[in-house]
Amino acid sequence: MDQENQLRGVLIVMIGVLILTPDGLLIRLLSTDSWTTLFMRGLISGPAILIGYWLVAKQNPIQQIKSQGRFGLACAVIFALGSICFILSINNTTVANTLFIASTAPIFAAIIARFFLNEFVPRRVWYAIFAALLGIGVIAIGSLGHGQSSLIGDLFALGTALCMAGTLSLIRHARARSMVPAIGLSGLILAAITLLPASLMSIQATDWIYLALLGLIVVPIPFSLIAIGPRYLPASEVSLLLLLEAVLGPFWVWLVLAEFPGWLALTGGAIVIITLVAMNIYALRREIRQQGK
């Protein structure tokens, strides 16, 4: 891999992650309920991704979705379910808890790869799984002191991680084709699922600003850029850069809304992030050594 492609990949993923980090803050600033937020998020971001793909890739996204078959449809449905879990988590626990727990998605992707795709999982990954689950346990203990809703939010965050892991596994399984149109389709599926419980009359004037930022910028641009990143970077390096959201996302919420997640949540989050950083750096160094041979 030449340095020019590597630098391009780092910039693409880094820009995507940095744009994504205010996601939790914008959701917190909304006065709408979870279902209305989800409906508008899907209704705006879905078409934005599909139109953006058509303009940039010069390919018909509908035809691309048809060519992806059941893998594209499964990816879209699972990603939509992950979006539901994400919003419900943020509205029922701290943003830090949501992002710390959701960042374990690569580890659950390894479990899926082992039991559903029959791929070999190295021993170091099993150690990382144990450590990450320990971190999640510490976060959950901290949530017990904040009432039942906080613990429910943690469970939804775990659902987010599982859905993201499923999405990553499907993208890996069908990596010869771009799954960006499937992510766009997931927005339309999300809007269809949440249409009935949504309450459009409850949307305030300022909400439209936050919803536009989410639907047109913070959701479609990052996920499109992050999907391009693996063309230029090893998967381990992409995963490492994605951890920036788990660090910066809670920081923006603390800075603007003074939401402190608690020391147990920070301790558990530190365990999760340190574990993932160590695992990804080890994998990256191993890939570099293998390329040098």
Write a concise keyword list for the protein shown above.
293 residues; mainly alpha
Description of the molecule:
By secondary structure, the protein is mostly helical. The protein has one domain (3-10, 21-292). The protein has 13 helices and no strands. The protein has helices at 3-20, 23-29, 34-57, 61-90, 95-102, 105-115, 123-144, 148-173, 180-194, 205-218, 220-228, 235-257, 263-292. It is globular, with a radius of gyration of 18 Å. The model has no long low-confidence stretch (mean pLDDT 85).
Morphology call: globular
H/E element sequence:
HHHHHHHHHHHHH
First CA to last CA: what distance? 13 Å
> What is the overall number of helices?
13
Using only CA atoms, what is the Rg?
Answer: 18 Å
Structural class: mainly alpha
Domain tally: 1
The tally of beta strands, per DSSP, is 0
User: Largest sheet, if any?
Assistant: none
Q: pLDDT under 50 segments (min length 5)?
A: none
Q: Which whole number gives the mean pLDDT? A: 85
Strand-residue proportion:
under 5%
Helix content: over 70%
